[in-house]
Amino acid sequence: MNLEQSRKTIDEIDSQLTKLFAERMSCAAEIAAYKKEHNLPVLDAGRERQKLAAISELVPEELENSVRCLYSLIFSLSRAYQHRLLGNDAELPKKIAAAIEQTPNLFPPKAMVACQGVEGAYSQIACEKLFQAPNILYFSNFEAVFSAIEKGLCQYGIIPLENSTAGSVNKVYDLMLQHEFFIVRSTRLKVDHSLLVRPGTKLSDIREVYSHEQAIGQCQEFLKTLPNVQIIRCENTAAAAKFVAESGRNDVAALASRTCGALYGLTALAECVQDQGNNYTRFICISKNLEIYPGADRTSLRMVLAHKPGALYQVLSLFNALGINLNKLESRPIPERDFEFAFYFDLDTSIYSPDFLQLMAELPGICEQFSYLGSYSEVI
Q1: Is 21 a catalytic residue?
Q2: 165, 187, 237, 281: the active-site residue
Q3: 75 tagged catalytic
Q4: Cα(216)–Cα(234) distance, rounded to whole angstroms?
């Protein structure tokens, strides 16, 4: 084997391939002009299936999967090029452009905001990080927060979406789809849990510990050190602290923030008891209306893809073709379908990028279901 000769041959082949690729894209441009003239969609799924089947027969069996992957990417590039030439006439890019045009240049410093929990909740801290002077209404659960926005009691809501230790808050994703709300901003909070008790309570006195299920999940190792203690879930960490303060009992404790301890006159028997020191919760600000503020560089999407090999790859290859970075990919079971999943994506891309608009034009056509959850920036 002559390595240099083989490399020279590959270089010659690559030279031919690039010229042929350029010719193919030129033909794609001609097809785009025809489709525009005759009001035809860019995606022709039947034609692509036929092409993949025909191309697979032109190579040895061991290369069939590889050539299908290659041409799936080429098809994605071709569609993206055609969308660019056609000016993104799809409905979603128009909706996004209208929201950018109609949204004020500055995020509102004050507003009526719904939060889950009571005074001292982490959602309150997140709210005050996002708004300079919010008017906060507290609700007992996530459903009530969404309902308050739906009914017009509040313009915005602040809810936790995911934790670096415990993962996503699945109920929130379900409610986002049920109410068709949008994310307009997000922030991350460092979460430190303390074991809070009424003054005079000793560690050996504790028989019950109250907290939210996410906080309980984040403090599993510490809770294992408390023998004969019952762990009781409640709707919010701040609500747990308030209950302990008002209980009059010296055999109960709460897992909550030091802020809650100061607010409700409780003593911390142990601080920073979460399993991981690098414990962050991401909170999102939601709205009934699509609002896209200047500087938005993150987009959240939900997709249900065809239950067949290569469906997810087709989406990922499109991200790659357009040079769009993926911050998050998560799958969740679809309740009404056995062993089928919906995918959640967070994309790192500016709303002003032409590639972003091309992506928004093409993605709905290659998904069984597609939900645009909003474009926004994250407050550090």
Answers
A1: no
A2: 281
A3: no
A4: 10
